[in-house]
């Protein structure tokens, strides 16, 4: 059997889909072979079987527990990726006007979809600075149906260190930093996250939604795109992404057993400090994001002498580092340090940087 624990030496800095703990992968393999002692694979049982319904219930419970989600929120599992939420949010909630902050590629895509449904006020943007910072001065209009932000900008390596206080319902795309730090869920009316960065594998999106947000629904929303459908049917209106949910369940158990979100934050801070310290102290490298807004999940950096890019890539690859090529819109390198990445992997990358 081959898995990330027996392969050993690969240090997986992939931006997403991203590294999962060896225990998570091992438990997925077990479920593929014999799910919950049914003698069947998790791939070949009914999503309505009592064994699988138990998985969905426990997964929901783990998310509620890990993020300390109050009772007046629903948690649903959807297909279509976080990208589907860009249109679903607006389809369900944009009646007249919504406010967005543009902090990168994902925010821009969310804004583009929202414009199909009503007026969109982009109240702040860091686009002129190639998204190297999080805007701090703006006013959220009190008459907006909602206000949307992206908590962590996976591509540009910036992150909200503090969340704004919003006079209108606040909605957050947390795809790339959910479960990496404790959050006060009651400050948000909706949080969504594609699972493939910090929650599990690709194929399932978690939506956490305050019940009161859907009290005055819009008419004419297609059944599958209507949040209420999935809330009412407890994510079983149609066949949910069975295996991604199962794998996410395994990962959430791992997060919990490892000490929960507070421990994930402690680890993330240590990993980020180790890498940023090297970026700042090594004259051959420079960070691309403004220091105060740096992401603890995705660190973007460049070589001062970019003619050496290939040589550095080669050295990092030799040391077993995988997935550090920067996104084409930023260039340079990006090391993603999601929950399951060990500190030791960051140390390996830092050692390559020191020797280079
Ligand atoms: C990866 C990512 C997305 C897109 O997720 P998909 O599941 O591929 O649609 C959206 N937002 C953020 C912040 C991301 O990091």
Describe the protein.
The chain is an alpha/beta fold. A hairpin with a 4-residue loop joins strand 6 and strand 7. Residues 1-6 have low confidence and may be disordered. The strands form four sheets. The chain has a seven-stranded mixed beta sheet, with helices on both faces. It has a three-stranded antiparallel beta sheet with strand order 11-12-14, covered by helices on one side. A two-stranded parallel sheet has the order 1-13. It folds into two domains: 25-257, 3-Layer(aba) Sandwich (Aspartate Aminotransferase, domain 2), CATH 3.40.640; 261-355, Aspartate Aminotransferase, domain 1. Helix 3 packs across helix 7, helix 4 runs parallel beside helix 5 (105-114) and helix 8 packs parallel to helix 10 (343-355). It has helices at 4-7, 22-33, 50-66, 81-93, 105-114, 227-232, 242-257, 260-281, 309-318, 343-355; strands at 11-12, 73-78, 97-102, 119-125, 146-150, 152-153, 158-159, 170-173, 190-194, 205-210, 285-287, 298-303, 321-322, 333-336. The protein is globular and about 60 Å long. The protein starts with a helix and ends with a helix. The structure holds pyridoxal-5'-phosphate.
Structure summarized in a few sentences:
The protein has 356 residues and is of the alpha/beta class. 35% of the residues lie in helices and 17% in strands. Pyridoxal-5'-phosphate is lined by residues 16, 81-83, 106, 150, 154, 173, 175-176, 194, 197.
What is the CA-based Rg, rounded?
Answer: 21 Å
CATH architecture of the largest domain: 3-Layer(aba) Sandwich
Structural class: alpha/beta
Instruction: Write out the CATH superfamily name of the largest domain.
Output: Type I PLP-dependent aspartate aminotransferase-like (Major domain)
Bound compounds, please?
A: pyridoxal-5'-phosphate
Largest sheet: 7 strands, mixed
**Any idea how many domains?**
2
Question: Any low-confidence stretches, pLDDT <50, length ≥5?
Answer: 1-6
Residues in helix, %: 25-40%
Oligomer class: single chain
General form: globular
